[in-house]
Model the fold of this input.
Amino acid sequence: MTTKRESILAAIATALDGTTGVSTRIYRTRVDPVDRAASPAVIIQPLRDVCVQTTSLPKLDWTLTVRITVIERASIPDQAADDTIESLHSKVMSDLTLGGVAHDVIPVRTEFEFLEADQPAAVIGCEYEIKYRTDVDDLSQ
Amino acid sequence: MTLSFTEDLDAFFDTPGFTVSVVLGDTTSVGYFESPNEIIADGVVLTTDYAVVVKTSDFSTAARGNTMTVDSVDYTVREPMLLDDGKIMRVMLMKD
Done:
């Protein structure tokens, strides 16, 4: 069985298919660095998953924080990444259940890091909180 | 005792096969080209640190945004950085 967390991450990856400006360069938790030929790119990765049990029901309420990172190289990289960020946001927010595995999707923040590289570069992290519920003893249900 | 000698930077740069041509505007000289890869942004980005080491007196006017042609390839100057006593410098480059 697959955990709901993994199903959510897979649903986000599927939703981001066709994101403006990145072609097929959409990666799930890529750990190797992105070179110039692979830019611009989008990387989907979980940051944390926190649960609370707020009722006497045998259920856990989870908040999964996901970062969708855009890596762009251009003379004004954040400006060049704007279309990609607009596109990915619309795609993530178009179905707030992510195909029925989540309760809600909430945008949290966008963080910018600028780098002096072989071209000016930016690493732009768009964070979302995904609310979902599982059984106490089964993360897939 | 004072040790004095006259530096001859031309000797340092007179090594055909190791140096390459460097052109900035009307100035043509030679330099040592470097292009090491580097991983930055906490492992997220792989970049190439293009640079050329030249005599400062040859390229003292180099400034950010200038086009510098190194070994027949065009680059854009990021920043000139003086080395040691400032008589040679490493010009950091971007590739368009």
Q: What stands out?
A: Chain A touches chain B at residues 31, 33-36, 43, 69, 71, 113, 115-121, 123 (CB under 8 Å).
